[in-house]
Amino acid sequence: KQEVTQIPAALSVPEGENLVLNCSFTDSAIYNLQWFRQDPGKGLTSLLLIQSSQREQTSGRLNASLDKSSGRSTLYIAASQPGDSATYLCAVLLNDMRFGAGTRLTVKP
Amino acid sequence: GAVVSQHPSRVICKSGTSVKIECRSLDFQATTMFWYRQFPKKSLMLMATSNEGSKATYEQGVEKDKFLINHASLTLSTLTVTSAHPEDSSFYICSAISPPGVKASTDTQYFGPGTRLTVL
Questions:
Q1: For residue A105, what pLDDT is reported?
Q2: Whole-number Cα distances in Å, A87 to A26, A43, A62, B24, B76
Q3: Which residues of A touch B94 (CB under 8 A)?
Q4: Which among B54, B51, B1, B56 has a CA at the least distance from the CA of B26?
Q5: CA angle A62, B107, A32 (to 5 degrees)
Q6: Chain B: closest CA distance from residue A44 (Å)
Q7: Which of A22, A26, A30, B110 is exposed most, by the fewest CB atoms within 10 A?
Q8: How many pairs of residues across A and B have Cβ atoms under 8 Å apart?
Q9: For B103-116, what is each residue's pLDDT tens digit?
Q10: What is the pLDDT of residues B26-60, one digit of tens each?
Q11: Are A41 and B97 in contact (CB < 8 Å)?
């Protein structure tokens, strides 16, 4: 059974700092891995999608990597801003989609 | 254990038929549920926000007459794909928000396992 774990559960950083969020999964047989942003009371916003054959994806200040053999993915956020404050979720897809519990990020001005 | 269920998990239907997918919050009441769709090899896309007792709010580009959403109770939302066609084949997933203090200190979004729809 696929299990997805995110570390840390919460993170607070000063504005401008670079940071890394971690995601691990137990079954490496996945179609893809996605990183999402969740704002309170709102639906998910997709940030980055990495296919199983890919190693990383970049979008603006965000970079996500995937190491399928070790069951790990990282989301790197450069030059963090207060507007980045949100909960970040990773999810893996095979026969169904499994989500991590999320990392609640707070970026202080 | 699971806190949000979806039924069915898989469905195969003929073109032109309608398919109903149920999303249930199992141990909490959810005033807000979300419906997502994932195209093959593409990212999850928010389709609509389902609010109990009122009309759903659809994202831009999502046909509300095609994808009917009914949030009839605080534990059940349904998505009906009307007159389904092969291009509607996709993975549909729902989520429900648990209010603060019910399952966690803050409002938390829980996801169903998804429904794989194949339209022949």
A1: 96
A2: 22, 11, 15, 23, 25
A3: none
A4: B1
A5: 40
A6: 7
A7: A26
A8: 45
A9: 665 667 788 888 99
A10: 988 888 899 999 877 677 788 999 888 888 999 99
A11: yes
Any chain A CB within 8 A of the CB of B106?
A: yes
CA distances from B32 to A44, A77, B54, B82, B113 (A): 13, 30, 10, 23, 17
For chain B, the average pLDDT equals: 88
- Minimal Cα–Cα distance from B117 to chain A, Å? 12
Identity of residue B21: I
E strands along A3-42, which residues? 4-7, 10-14, 19-25, 32-38
Question: What value does the mean pLDDT of chain A take?
Answer: 92
Return the structure tokens found at A23.
Answer: 């995601």
